[in-house]
Amino acid sequence: MQFGIFSVSDITRDPVSGETPSEAERIDGILKIAVKAEEVGLDVFAIGEHHNPPFFSSSPTTLLSHIAALTERLIVTTATTLITTNDPVRIAEEYAMLQHLSKGRMDLMLGRGNTAPVYPWFGQDIRQGLPLALEHYNLLHRLWREDVVDWEGEFRTPLQGFTSTPRPLDDVPPFVWHGSIRTPEIAEQAAFYGNGYFANHIFWPTSHSKRLVDFYRQRFEHYGHGTRKQAIVGLGGHAYIAKRSQDAVSEFRPYFNEAPVYGHGPSLEEFTQGTPLSVGSPQEVIDKTLTFHDAFGDYQRQMFLIDHAGMPLKMVLNQLDLLGEEVVPVLRKELAARRDPESADAPTHASLVKAKYGDGPARQPRPNANRGDNVTGASPYQDSDAAAEYPEI
Q1: 372, 382 in Cβ contact below 8 A?
Q2: pLDDT per residue as tens digits for the range 345-376
Q3: Which of 11, 68, 198, 386 could cross-link 177 (Cys pair, CB 3.0–4.6 Å)?
Q4: What are the record's GO terms for cellular component (predicted)?
Q5: Superfamily per CATH, domain 2-389
């Protein structure tokens, strides 16, 4: 079981102090948060992808590769990589590079995002959001597994004899999670490929997320990747922790009331009762998180949002201390005791390499520009005017 934190990268006014951090302060702060996550014993750090204010994470691979360089064992990943508006060729290249730079300490979560204007900014039509998500991942899946790809689809120019570089580390593609809060087609796609399914599990009652997770597990088994118990499931969550529950409520209330995604709706008490939001003492957060296992059974990754809505860095770092010292160790022990021995472990690069090669050596692709693609040896200049200009090729 992996535990971690994720950030949506918002730059929001602190409702208590009235101060709004600069982009530079917020970016520097997220580095400190990620490093702290490793220090307190967490396994995973994730960042979202946004291309509009008030968010800063427009280039998650750049940020995550820097975090990987600052840490030793932390898995870096995305809370959303926009599969709709990013070119799958660029995703293949950038995340393979991140995989090499992090020595395999990475994976990624694909999603459609929740910002409508991003589609025309990147030349896409939001009305095609679901077909884009499905077609783009189908191509990405091939780019990481086939050295030479011929492809034609609806939403981008065709590819002929294309090799994405760098090739995945050890010729093992990064593990992919498909994230969705409402779309069964995304759960179906995750199941078809044997990938992970991540339910954000913040805004909706547990019963809503459970329907999608149960559907994914059923389809995972249908496609022959293993039993329902062996399906790879991740859950989000939002927690605010204090030594005493009354302090947690009073400290978190102003941030909840003004939060862009929570504020001006149901009260904190109503939201805590009706959704997975956890606000309270360490034991109360432990108890609430254990109800996730009651509903979903064994799952492989639990992520917490802890830096949202203008919360100052000092308060976030304190949350990490409480999460790492008092909450996660108990959850690890309790969930390990409940774990069915047939359930799958959380995937890592090492486990994926082991599954592909056993005890044998991993393949190390060596594409050579002077011989064209790295399988057929066809020249990139073959049958072109360039062949006369470069006769040695």
Answers
A1: yes
A2: 999 999 999 999 999 999 999 877 655 554 54
A3: 198
A4: cytosol
A5: Luciferase-like domain (3.20.20.30)
